[in-house]
Structure formats: structure tokens, C-alpha cells
Design brief:
GO biological process, one term: glycolipid biosynthetic process
Strand content: 5-15%
Family: Belongs to the galactose-3-O-sulfotransferase family.
Largest sheet: 4 strands, parallel
Shape: globular
Radius of gyration: 19 Å
Mean pLDDT: 81
GO cellular component, one term: Golgi membrane
Main location: Golgi
GO molecular function: galactosylceramide sulfotransferase activity
Number of helices: 11
Low-confidence stretches: 1-34
């Protein structure tokens, strides 16, 4: 039974979900009569969080959790002035393209929109005690999801024709991939999101050292295939309340084998 089914059963008419921009929030009515005793926020709860929103890995669902927590605590979130991403193709300073901080504030509390990971750029806009989180997914499933999701809107995928575009792509991937690997959503995109140099992905020593570096920087990496367990681990790390991590799946899709 999914989370929303449990909430519907527990709350009856007092439960509904309400879309808000690109995230899903639980209706305020849920907080009027919640199905569990309302917890007091932990005095040591973590309020400074960077979440690497990896493409097609349930990251929008996690972003919804982050946004709802920020709204409840009136925190400052770095969001783009336009669109739904801060950086898709390159690492750069995000202050010029993000919504400015309120007067008197010098750092953001939460960053969870799409960026290409770059530790220095993150530390320029966030507090020194920020917790680093990310999410990953079984690579082939992530590829299938990206292929299906981005194919209608991205020229390099849209140009693949035939009754089985996926099979056509696999016959010669280099024929369809864009010249700039940072503009691809199907060629090791998770590695690119984590800030790896896409021109060095065949260099095993580089990849091994970079993964070691990521292991030192990130406090927790969620796994989509173990999503509920990952959310529990996140809650414990951040010392958040149970109601802070209740979620409704967002942007889910069924894979069409022929795509």
C-alpha cells in the first residue's frame, strides 16, 4: 500500500493532496487532524541541507519533502528565478540566477533544485555546517526513464525513428548522442550530475578517485530502489519528525519497452 493510500485510510475526508508549482504538498487539512500525535521539532534538527537532484531517480519526490520542510520552518531556499533548474550543463556560480536572499540574510538554508555538483559553488551560498545528500538509481533503469522522459522534447532523441527507437539507439549510440556530453541525459547522466568530467569516464583511476572524494563529501546517498529505507535513514540523519518525511510519489511513469 502506498503512502497516499495509508493517509487516505487514516484521515478519510481530512486528507487530500494539492499541487503547488513543481512539488506536491500535503493539504493543510492534514495538519488539522493528523493520524499521529504531532511531534515537536527536535532542537538539534538539521536545517541546512544540500540535496543533489539527480535526473530520473525519484529526486522530485525528495525535493517535495525538502520544500515542505522549508515552508514549515520558513527557511531560505535557493531556487531559480525562471524554470526549474539552476544548472543543467555546467558548474557555475548560482547567485546570479537564483532568487535573491531577503535583506540581512547571507546564506541559503536549503538547495535542492537541479545543479551540476560543484562543492566550491555550493559552499559559496550555503552555511558551513550544511549536510550533503544525493540520490542514485540502478543505472539501466535510470537510462530507460531518461530516454522515455526526454525523448519528446530533446532533438537528439527525437530524431531516432523506427518502430523501436531504443533498439535503434543501441545499434549506434554515438550517432545520436550530442557532441557536448554535458548536454546528454542518456550517457552516464548520473555521473555528470555528480560533477564528473564526462570526457574522463573511461579513466578508471580518475573515476575511482572521484568516487572516493564524493564519499568524503556526502553525508548520505539515497537509493531509489530502497526509497523508503533511504527516507528513514535521511530522517534519522537530519533528526526530522515523521510528518516531515511523509511523501507522495511525483513524476512516476511506466516504461514502454519500445519507447
Amino acid at each position: 500500500m502506498q503512502t497516499n493510500d495509508v493517509l487516505q485510510k487514516a484521515c478519510g475526508d481530512h486528507y487530500c493532496c494539492q499541487p503547488h508549482h513543481s512539488l506536491v504538498l500535503l493539504s493543510p487539512r492534514l495538519y488539522v487532524r493528523p493520524p499521529w500525535p504531532r511531534e515537536t521539532p527536535d532542537k538539534d534538527e538539521v536545517r541546512h541541507v544540500f540535496f543533489l537532484k539527480v535526473h530520473k531517480a525519484a529526486s522530485t519526490t525528495v525535493m517535495g519533502i525538502m520544500f515542505r520542510f522549508a515552508l514549515d520552518r520558513k527557511l531560505d531556499v535557493l531556487v531559480p528565478r525562471e524554470g526549474n533548474f539552476l544548472s543543467e550543463t555546467r558548474q557555475k556560480s548560482w547567485t546570479s540566477i537564483g532568487v535573491p536572499l531577503p535583506k540581512g540574510r547571507t546564506r541559503y538554508d536549503i538547495l535542492c533544485n537541479h545543479v551540476v555538483f560543484h562543492e566550491k559553488s555550493i559552499m559559496e551560498v550555503m552555511y558551513s555546517d550544511v549536510k550533503f545528500l544525493a540520490i542514485v538509481r540502478y543505472p539501466f533503469n535510470q537510462f530507460l526513464s531518461a530516454f522515455q522522459f526526454f525523448r519528446p522534447g530533446w532533438k537528439y532523441l527525437r530524431m531516432i525513428s523506427g518502430p523501436n527507437p531504443l533498439a535503434t539507439y543501441f545499434q549506434n549510440p554515438d550517432l545520436y548522442e550530442p557532441p557536448n556530453p554535458r548536454e546528454s541525459f542518456t550517457n552516464n547522466r548520473m555521473s555528470v550530475d555528480f560533477g564528473m568530467d564526462p570526457s574522463r569516464l573511461e579513466d578508471r583511476d580518475y573515476v575511482r578517485k572521484y568516487i572516493g572524494y564524493l564519499g568524503k563529501v556526502f553525508d548520505l546517498v539515497l537509493v531509489m530502489e530502497l526509497f523508503d529505507e533511504s527516507v528513514i535513514a535521511m530522517r534519522r540523519l537530519l533528526q526530522w519528525r515523521l510528518q516531515d518525511v511523509v511523501y507522495i510519489p511525483v513524476n512516476t511513469q511506466r516504461h514502454n519497452i519500445f519507447l
